[in-house]
């Protein structure tokens, strides 16, 4: 998959979710962990002295614009595909909640 093909597929998903055209994408990055010679499909590990509180920080969006997901942000399934899936669902739910709250506040 080329970067452009991935971007177009992602835009289609977003457009079907939000039921409207997606604005022009200014910048994006596609990672290819499996073929990256510096990671070769690696996963996260904690630095000595880290605690679960460090991982918990990834649950907090930045300015309600940047949301984190991935196995690195899972307390219960750190370093696993399940952790990536669970945190992806968590981040998606945070975005949906923000979107719904924005709609409600707009109608008031």
Overview of the molecule:
The protein has 108 residues and is mainly α. The chain is 44% helix and 0% strand.
* Total helical segments: 3
Broad structural category: mainly alpha
Q: Give the uncertain stretches in residue-range form.
A: none
Task: Give the total of beta strands.
Answer: 0
Helix content: 40-55%
Averaged pLDDT: 87
- What is the first-to-last residue Cα distance? 44 Å
Morphology = flat
Question: Briefly, what is this?
Answer:
This protein is 44% helix and 0% strand. The protein is an all-alpha fold and 108 residues long.
Structural features:
single chain, 108 residues, mainly alpha, 3 helices, 0% strand
Secondary structure elements and their pairing?
Blueprint: H1 3-18, H2 52-56, H3 81-107
């Amino acid at each position: 998959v080329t970067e452009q093909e991935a971007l177009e597929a992602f835009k289609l998903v977003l457009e079907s979710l939000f039921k409207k055209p997606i604005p022009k994408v200014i910048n994006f990055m596609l990672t290819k962990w499996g073929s990256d010679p510096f990671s070769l499909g690696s996963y996260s590990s904690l630095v000595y002295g880290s605690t679960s509180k460090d991982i918990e920080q990834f649950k907090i969006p930045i300015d309600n614009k940047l949301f984190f997901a991935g196995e690195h942000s899972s307390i219960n399934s750190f370093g696993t595909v399940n952790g990536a899936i669970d945190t992806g669902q968590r981040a998606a739910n945070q975005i949906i909640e923000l979107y719904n709250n924005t709609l409600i506040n707009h109608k008031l």
